Amino acid sequence: MQHKVTRFAGSTFTHVILAGYSILALFPIVLIAINAFKDRASIFDSPLSLPNAESWSLIGFEKAMKNAHFFSFFGNSMIVTVTSLFFILLFGAMAAWALSEYRFRGNRWLMAFFAFGIMVPIRLGTVSILKIMVSLELVNTLTALILVYIAQGLPLAIMILSEFMQQIPKELKEAARCDGVGEFKIFFQVILPLIRPAVATVAVFTMVPIWNDLWFPLILAPGEETQTITLGVQQFIGQYATDWNAVLASLSLAVLPVLVLYMFFSRQLIRGITAGAVK
Amino acid sequence: MKKPFPWHILVFLTPAFLIYAVFSAFPLLDTLRLGFYTTSETGSQHFAWLANYRMLLFDPNWSEGFWNAMGNNVKFFLVHMLIQNPLGLLLAALLSMRGVRGAKAYQTLLFLPTLLSVVIIGFIWQLILSPLWGVAETLLGYVGLAEHFQPWLGQEETALYTLSLMSVWQFVGIPMMLIYAALIAIPDEIIEAAVVEGASAWRIFWTIRVPLILPTLGLVTILTFVGNFNAFDLIYSVKGALAGPSYSTDILGTYFYRAFFGYQSQLGSATLGAAVATLMFLVILAGVGVYFFFVQRKLQRFSF
Amino acid sequence: MKHIRLTQGALAAALLTAGTAQAGTLTIESWRVDDKALWEEVLIPAFQKKHPGIQIKFSPTAPTEYDSALQARLTGGTAGDLITCRPFDKSLDLYKKSFLEKLDGKGGMQNFPASAKVAWQSDDGKDTFCMPMASVIHGFFYNKKIFKELGLQPPKTVAEFHKAADAVKKAGKTPIALGTADQWEASQIVFTGIGPNYWKGEEGRKAIVAGSAKFTDAPYVAAWTEMSKWAPYLAKGYSAQTYGDTQNLFASGRAAMVPAGSWDIGYYNQQGVDFGAFPPPVQKAGDKCYISDHTDLGIGVNPKSKNKGDAYKFLEWVGSQEFADLYTNKVTGFFSLSNHLIAVKDPVAKSMIDWRKTCGSTIRLNAQILNRGEPNMETELWTVNSAVLNGKMTPKAAAERIQAGLSKWYKPAK
């Protein structure tokens, strides 16, 4: 009986905290959403009120859509983010596996070499990167962005994934090796499925900086055909007057694709839990 | 007992190594090298050994700004360590409890802020905290605290902490996700055994689950450290590269930006900027070094 | 190895959708995001009527990123053909690094007075590297409706200005829309806007440059003293008020006056405010007035341009009567710097440009030469001027800090 009471109290407590913080996390976002549908004067006059007949306005969305390239901006962001993400996860997991599983000469040095990349802001290498891209004739291509983002994302992915790989019980790998399974097969068929929650976690927060990055699109691919959505939105941020309607509208639209990606990966995370029963 | 050449290691490492070496490590090292040069008016660069560093650390024009930025950065980091990470741990612990209804929905909601562009985050928080349009004041009014409202983003004493909390709000999803992933990876049998023995949930959490995820907590700490000492976007988008009022929100990232790219009529210098970046690198390296050589070793002994 | 090449090949093949700009297209680098539609819909078509076949792309970068992005693109060799120039040292620096062509004697340059070219010349005046495009004038806007309701007239003297502000405050509105969150307004609009009346415009500016006057001298301190009296007139919590907030405050009719620049005319017109402009008030009735008439935009040619011939054709057109007319009247509040006679149509813009007839014109106090050393005067002024408005620094302390900073590196000031 007492057990039940504690449990009930416990779960109420849990929900109070989770719901409480969710409101805090959500409130500004709701505010963004409701103000994206209002005219400029009402955004500032009464930011808290819902759009009504008087303040309702789709001008922000209209302005965003008016740009013929707006949807191709989305496409570009999508291609860049998904492709970079795929290669970061694949190459990152492979390298993390090699570094955490095999003892070989230079292992520690390689670890340090990769760790270097999370300690120095990659912006710093901008001019060198631009020069490399110019000589490879990759300026104004999405490939240039993808290559830089892969390079930028790898160190963190390797660091986190190798941390998780170390936690995989030895017996699993040894059992497979005793059965004569090859190293590649062990990696792709045993290890990758096991660390799926970790891969999903890394994916989720590698994709956000890529999606939201302004700097490299500005330098490497500012052409109209290769602009990403974040760069595209910049056209509404003026020297003296910023078109907040258009910014709010286009940026709240821009959240949707990442949100979909996030849902996809967080499902992997949940699946990982059920797969955890294997252990 | 000579082993065959481990081709598989090479195959696993090569793709990551090549892309990273060409498009990140080489450009970064090339730029760090510039820290030993100075730029003349015509843009040519000359080797100057430690001249930039002497200027940054001993010329008051630069050193005051540098130490100010460093101090602010430490405060920025402490706020994340004291609020963001414990909060992330709490949320992850609650989410990973068995039978919490709507855990998945909560998880998505809590992660939403992390997905947003910093432009929109800066805008919305400025709107909320603005003394003119009254969102925060109205909300505080509902709980009878309206008289405590202040223009937090505009005051030297409060601006940095306000920005730190905005950053916590934005990024708390990351430690939460990492810790969550670690918590759900704990084999059920361990927990069940403890439950059978009659241990309370609270006890299980502190004596079994937390020790098991210590490596992840270490990882979160080091990622927070590296992330905070490289932070830039939020402060830049809310306060500009000048990080006012009176540089009270200036951190190493904004200080670096001004040195490297210049600001307004202040000219940027790639060589001086590279020196600032090298200093930042050394600071971060020191932190990471401490982590790897002391903390992580202990942690590994602690976990199984 | 093979693995990599294969992946990369596939990657490139799948993604190489876009080519670089086609040959024969001129690209204009600019920070004027605000004018994009205008360039595309008015200016470029007007040019193409005269020069069919030359393709032009106006490719603006957000103003805060402009300098750094341009610098990177110039260094990497991917910058556009025509480059919008910031005034004074920023562009001089580009010229010294051979990122801008020398323009003396090029077609169109003859249409500009020497005073307009100063902002884009080497210190000895021998080389000019950008064609002057436009200046902005600083002053105050007032809400006509509020002024009428309270029976106020646009103030001419400082005393009248304070009287008007007091009256507005009594009526429960914000007298002056101004914040210090973004810092630049405090310096570029307020200090160098109202200041020339105290230091007599060019006379006081040149005296500082020559080292014959110090910032701690009475005229300069007086400008800061006036600023330090504004706090009661500003909106609650103005230390967190951004420039965007300021615009909204004035546009929504909650504030009666706003220290502003001519660039905002277009914005407030669009917001439907009924407003007028008055120049910075003078100290005593009958004093000569001075205005900050700041050379703000120029345009230059990238030496690495592949279409230099076309670029010069375009430049010549920028120096023409047609461009001056279009630019002044379409980009309301940016005034052409050329010798051509232009009829300004917008009433507020016209009243501001007419100040040139009665007031002495000057540029921002620190724009020329004084920004070169360390500590940088422009960033120092932003910090100090916001602190004075915030009541965190006395006028005297402000003057001392700026003077001390200057005399650290500037010989004439020692």
UniProtKB/TrEMBL annotation, chain A:
The keyword Nucleus does not apply. This is Carbohydrate ABC transporter permease. It is a multi-pass membrane protein. Residues 74-265 form the ABC transmembrane type-1 domain. The keyword Cytoplasm does not apply. Pfam families: BPD_transp_1 (PF00528). Its main location: membrane. Gene3D superfamilies: MetI-like. Belongs to the binding-protein-dependent transport system permease family. The chain crosses the membrane at residues 12-37, 73-97, 109-130, 142-165, 186-211, 246-265. Keywords: Cell membrane, Membrane, Transmembrane, Transmembrane helix, Transport. It is found in: Cell membrane.
TrEMBL record, chain B:
It comes from the Bacteria. Keywords: Cell membrane, Membrane, Transmembrane, Transmembrane helix, Transport. The chain crosses the membrane at residues 7-29, 76-97, 109-128, 159-183, 204-226, 270-294. InterPro entries: MetI-like, MetI-like_sf, UgpAE/MalFG_permease. It is a multi-pass membrane protein. It is found in: Cell membrane. Its main location: membrane. Residues 70-291 form the ABC transmembrane type-1 domain. Belongs to the binding-protein-dependent transport system permease family. PANTHER family: BLL4140 PROTEIN, DIACETYLCHITOBIOSE UPTAKE SYSTEM PERMEASE PROTEIN DASB. This is Sugar ABC transporter permease.
TrEMBL record, chain C:
Belongs to the bacterial solute-binding protein 1 family. It comes from Chitiniphilus purpureus. Pfam families: SBP_bac_1. It is found in: Periplasm. The keyword Signal applies. PANTHER family: ARABINOSE-BINDING PROTEIN-RELATED (PTHR43649), BINDING PROTEIN COMPONENT OF ABC SUGAR TRANSPORTER-RELATED (PTHR43649:SF28). This is Probable sugar-binding periplasmic protein. Gene3D superfamilies: Periplasmic binding protein-like II. SUPFAM superfamilies: Periplasmic binding protein-like II. InterPro entries: Bact_solute-bd_prot1, SBP, SBP_1_CS.
